[in-house]
């Protein structure tokens, strides 16, 4: 596989945020954080889950006799980007039961309160579906939740990206050449192999010039044989490598330009769920191996100069 640079090699730096939501409970992670800017500064949503990814690529639940679940946590950030008042968001007051939890909540500010997108998969929603929700003004509970239908009842939906403000042309960027507007999927044709396999990550950051910036990814997977200490033999393992890219979009939701691929800290499972502007840097929040939370700081000038125009 091609070697990709890390944020450090690109001239940026990493700030570690959290490994566990509660220091005294090792069963619940703090991962896939979503940073966003609101009226009073920066805040962050964190997904906490009860599993780890083992070396063979499988998911092992960390809470006894349980299934994979997710919790929604939230915190404000101080001037040094440290968490303030990390708290679990209450989802119990909704009309639909949330048992398995909301996966990867991604924040955006909506005038006087926080909204978020997330993935829902419950008994009443057995295939993953995108939802958009509202938090109360104190950011302590989810007060409303809207589910979006998918293309097909068997096809999971995730990683849609939403603009920070209402856009007359699209409600979500659905994929590299597709948008959703008023519940209708619109696609346009392209043979460009550089964008066809891209998947969404962060919501969209308004660059104040009629364009948006986001982080997107490609996932490279392969099956390898690894040594098992339990059986003293070889087992088949599924290795996943996430490669990220900065992507610039126009008001129609089309990709204008794309950076070369990069890793945040290392190869493997990394997932970026938020991006903000801070002084001379872009700050990207990401999770590593589905268990820890981090912030990547990189020069705006470096990012914008790295974007190469996309040809359709």
Any key phrases for this structure?
312 residues; mainly beta; four-stranded antiparallel sheet; 2 helices; 51% strand; globular
Set down the secondary structure blueprint.
Blueprint: E1 13-18, E2 31-38, E3 41-49, E4 51-53, E5 59-61, E6 70-77, E7 83-88, E8 102-109, E9 114-122, E10 125-135, E11 142-147, E12 172-175, E13 178-181, E14 184-187, H1 193-196, E15 199-200, E16 205-206, E17 212-228, E18 233-249, E19 255-258, E20 270-278, E21 281-288, E22 292-299, H2 300-306, E23 308-309
Antiparallel strand pairs: 1-22, 2-3, 3-6, 4-5, 6-7, 8-9, 9-10, 10-11, 12-13, 13-14, 15-17, 16-17, 17-18, 18-19, 19-23, 20-21, 21-22
Q: Would you kindly provide a written description of the structure presented here, covering whatever features stand out?
A:
By secondary structure, the protein is mostly beta strands. It is 4% helix and 51% strand. The protein is built from two helices and 23 strands. The protein has helices at residues 193-196, 300-306, and strands at residues 13-18, 31-38, 41-49, 51-53, 59-61, 70-77, 83-88, 102-109, 114-122, 125-135, 142-147, 172-175, 178-181, 184-187, 199-200, 205-206, 212-228, 233-249, 255-258, 270-278, 281-288, 292-299, 308-309. Strands 15, 16, 17, 18, 19 and 23 form a six-stranded antiparallel sheet that branches. A four-stranded antiparallel sheet has the order 1-22-21-20. Strands 2-3-6-7 form a four-stranded antiparallel sheet, with no helix packed on it. The longest helix is centred in the C-terminal third of the chain and has 7 residues, at 300-306. The two termini are 26 Å apart. The model has no long low-confidence stretch (mean pLDDT 93).
């Amino acid at each position: 596989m091609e070697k990709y640079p890390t944020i450090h090699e690109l001239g940026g730096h990493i700030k570690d945020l959290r490994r566990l939501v509660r220091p005294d409970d090792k069963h619940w992670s703090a991962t896939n954080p979503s940073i966003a800017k609101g009226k009073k500064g920066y805040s962050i949503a964190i997904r906490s889950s009860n599993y780890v990814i083992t070396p063979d690529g499988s998911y092992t639940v960390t809470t006894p006799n349980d299934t994979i679940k997710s919790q929604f946590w939230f915190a404000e950030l101080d001037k040094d980007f440290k968490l303030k008042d990390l708290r679990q968001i209450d989802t119990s007051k909704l009309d639909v039961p949330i048992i398995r939890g909301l996966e990867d909540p991604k924040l955006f500010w909506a005038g006087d309160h926080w909204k978020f997108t997330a993935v829902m998969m419950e008994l009443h929603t057995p295939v993953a579906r995108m939802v958009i929700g509202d938090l109360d003004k104190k950011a302590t509970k989810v007060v409303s939740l809207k589910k979006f239908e998918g293309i097909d009842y068997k096809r999971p939906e995730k990683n849609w990206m939403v603009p920070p403000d209402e856009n007359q042309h699209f409600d979500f960027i659905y994929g590299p050449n597709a948008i959703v507007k008023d519940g209708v999927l619109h696609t346009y044709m392209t043979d460009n192999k550089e964008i066809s396999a891209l998947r969404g990550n962060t919501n969209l950051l308004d660059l104040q010039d009629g364009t948006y910036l986001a982080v997107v990814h490609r996932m490279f997977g392969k099956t390898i044989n690894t040594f098992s200490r339990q059986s003293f033999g070889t087992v088949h393992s599924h290795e996943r490598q996430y490669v990220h890219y900065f992507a610039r979009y126009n008001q129609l939701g089309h990709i204008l330009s794309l950076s070369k691929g990069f890793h945040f800290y290392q190869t493997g499972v990394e997932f970026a769920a938020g991006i903000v502007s801070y002084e001379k840097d872009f700050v990207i929040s990401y999770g590593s191996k589905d268990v820890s939370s981090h912030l990547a700081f990189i020069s705006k000038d470096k990012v914008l100069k790295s974007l190469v125009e996309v040809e359709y």
